[in-house]
Amino acid sequence: MSSQDIPEENLPAEQAAHEGAHGAVSVADEKNPFADPGLPPHEHRIQDVDERAARRSERTVALLFTVSMLAAVAFIASYVAIPKDKAIYVFPLGHISALNFALGLTLGLALFCIGAGAVHWARTLMSDVEVADERHAIAADPDTRAKVHADFKLGAQESQLGRRKLIRTTMLGALTLVPLSGIVLLRDLGPLPGDKLRHTLWAKGKRLVNMNTNLPLRPEDVAVGSLTFAMPDGLKETDEDFQTEIAKAALMIVRLQPDNIKDKRELDWSHQGVVAYSKICTHVGCPISLYEQQTHHVLCPCHQSTFDLSDGARVIFGPAGHALPQLRIGVDSEGYLQALGDFEEPVGPAFWERG
């Protein structure tokens, strides 16, 4: 590149004339023991002195932004065109959802190109001249503060917001209600849960089925001091919603001596000492699986919440907030254990609408 292609202010001769002031170093003395090193001499980039290089950088940034736009269009097209149940093999991830892979790839590319384009633009084309800005006091002087306060009071008085109560009330109402319009966007999160958290598959006449054998339980199948897990009759592991339903309907079946049951309601809701309680811990929803037959205590293995099954499953230790819900049970005409209704309170941890 010849000297004719370089602007005069960027030529070495011109740069040298300014470097003395740009990188000047003050000399330390008794009044100012710390010398100001100043700024190092400014080094020009190739784009600052060569317009062809600047245009190449411009085209690079434009290319990155264009790729970002194409990736965004591909994201929309993927969302519309690719079936959600289609799977593809991607090494080394294995078989994954084609839709998720396409959406992640295109969106990631779109965001990356925007960021890369912005960074390249800033590093090659935007000004990179170092500027020293002396610090000064941030606080305003007393006269300025007094004037600002006076102007604020005058503005409030002139607006007549205090006098015009109708305007003030309607304005506050508008500012309150308009943001609520954004709640409509929550519709895309899916259907409202309604009262699903309050109900399970248990209902009057539903038999208690052993989760290990998939056979209905009789009272004689439950030995004193043993712990058996049960689920509602008709629920199968192959069902699409099995995990959702078992997370609410899982039961612990324990047989106690009727004389050892301290809580009257627990005794009334049991059958021949067989009691049925929710298996879901009321702390964070872990499955309870540890039983101590001498004390009739059950322990949650996650955070050690402990419940007394002989006294209404009340909490005797740990962070759980309330007792385990009990299921009222009896026997049907064939002698099998059955539910006499659903739980009378929500199962598992507390939630905001729990009553």
From TrEMBL:
Q: Classify the protein's membrane topology as the record does.
A: Multi-pass membrane protein
**Top-level taxon of the source organism:** Bacteria
Q: What is its main location?
A: membrane
Q: Which UniProt keywords apply?
A: 2Fe-2S, Cell membrane, Disulfide bond, Electron transport, Iron, Iron-sulfur, Membrane, Metal-binding, Oxidoreductase, Respiratory chain, Transmembrane, Transmembrane helix, Transport
Query: What are the Rieske domain coordinates in residue numbering?
Result: 267-338
Q: So where does this one cross the membrane?
A: 61-82, 102-122, 166-186
Xref: InterPro entries: QcrA_N, Rieske_2Fe-2S, Rieske_2Fe-2S_sf, Rieske_Fe-S_prot
Region named Disordered? 1-43
Q: Which Gene3D superfamilies match?
A: Rieske [2Fe-2S] iron-sulphur domain (2.102.10.10)
Which compartments is it annotated to reside in? Cell membrane
Keyword Transport on this protein?
yes
- What role does it play? Iron-sulfur subunit of the cytochrome bc1 complex, an essential component of the respiratory electron transport chain required for ATP synthesis. The bc1 complex catalyzes the oxidation of menaquinol and the reduction of cytochrome c in the respiratory chain. The bc1 complex operates through a Q-cycle mechanism that couples electron transfer to generation of the proton gradient that drives ATP synthesis.
Recorded family membership = Belongs to the Rieske iron-sulfur protein family.
PANTHER family linked: CYTOCHROME B-C1 COMPLEX SUBUNIT RIESKE, MITOCHONDRIAL (PTHR10134)
Its name, as the record gives it, is: Cytochrome bc1 complex Rieske iron-sulfur subunit
Q: Name its species.
A: Streptomyces tropicalis
